[in-house]
Amino acid sequence: MTNREKLAASCQAHLAALAAAGRRKGKEQVVTAIRPPRDGYGHRVLLAGQGDTEFLRMNSNSYLGLSLHPQVIAAAAQAAERFGAGPGAVRFISGTYAPHVALEERLARFHGREAAMLFSAAYAAMVGILPQLIGPETVVISDSLNHNCIINAIRLAKPTAKAIYSHLDLAELATQLQAHCTQAKRALVVTDGIFSMRGDHAPLGAIAALCEQYRDDYAEGVILVVDDSHGVGAFGPTGRGTEEYAKGRAEVLVATLGKALGVNGGYVAADGAVIDLLRETAPLYVYSNPLTPAETAAAHAALDILDSAEGLELLATLHSRTAHFRSGLRSLGYETIDGDHPIVPLLVRDTHKTAELVSRLFAKGILATGLNYPIVPKGDEEIRFQISASHTEKDIEYVLEVLGVVGKTGA
């Protein structure tokens, strides 16, 4: 066998193992067109290989529907005309454009921080910054259901100790903080704001209080880092995320422009000294091209919409549609998780049944995401529905109607 053949054989064996374990994602659905709203229904998409069948997306992170907002699209087009299609260099060479600076200043004001910095994605932000905040005399304490980006960021770091507390178990978090104070100068507590598989949220007020309680036990304090990618723009009275909803504040906030704001990219907001250090040391910022000026301008426009009367109306619609769908699931006898976030899980608790129900929904023109082990713990298999302000009441009723049939009869 040639080297190419050996590599291909190895890859095929790995793929077969993933498939056998039920962990292979398979081919991606390719969106080929977006149809406008009509007859009281919202947008529909066309998929490659599915002809003219129209699909309702119940698995989009665009919680406010801003990715299709005319003002956001126009901002992207105008910036592309003015600055071109790409940045052409990393930030510290010649890749910093006026829209980058303007958006960072706007994000800092929005979150009440001294400064903010942009990354190509929130995943890149977390992986880029967390190792820079973790030294050899730091203990890292992480929620057991934190996102993969946090897990991999911790793996890249070199702390003196790592600890995991059971999901949302603050008594266990307190025990970990107390247990490690003699072996570390700094404790870094890291958590998702919204847990993306379940839609539940971290009680940031209580977590921040614990960090403050144990502050003096660590020479360099107890630092709270929060990834609120699913929270910002979709949670809290004005869309400022889990910090606003749960009345707690992190020293370092990571979030995304690619979910509720409908565009692309990630960012970090913190005190000025923290951001200054991260600009010098975070490799995925220093050595990676930034967002395009067009993406940056579009995100700025989306943030302006969120932080306006129109944004409050979108948030109100989002919360109304979410409550409608969650109560509808319960009325049909399905199990879900309490909460106000537009991630609404339908707990199936069986891998085969989850895949079967997702397939039945697809046959009825509904796109939803099945989550099985190891993405979620065994016994927590689910279908994750994600509500958007762009969903109409007729959209929600249609999905509930279909669930009322296919979930019970297998039709």
Task: Kindly describe this structure.
The protein is of the alpha/beta class and 411 residues long. It has two domains: 31-60 and 309-409, Aspartate Aminotransferase, domain 1, CATH 3.90.1150; 70-306, 3-Layer(aba) Sandwich (Aspartate Aminotransferase, domain 2), CATH 3.40.640. Helices cover 43% and strands 16% of the residues. The protein is built from 15 helices and 14 strands. It has helices at 3-20, 70-83, 91-95, 98-111, 122-133, 148-156, 170-179, 204-213, 242-246, 272-281, 283-286, 293-306, 309-331, 351-363, 393-409; strands spanning 31-35, 44-47, 56-57, 115-119, 138-143, 161-165, 186-192, 222-227, 252-256, 266-270, 343-347, 366-367, 369-371, 382-386. The strands form four sheets. The protein has a seven-stranded mixed sheet, with helices on both faces. The chain has a three-stranded antiparallel sheet with strand order 11-14-13, covered by helices on one side. Strand 8, helix 9 and strand 9 form a beta-alpha-beta unit. Helix 2 packs antiparallel against helix 12 (293-306). The protein is globular and about 60 Å long. The termini are far apart. The relative contact order is 0.15. The mean pLDDT is 95.
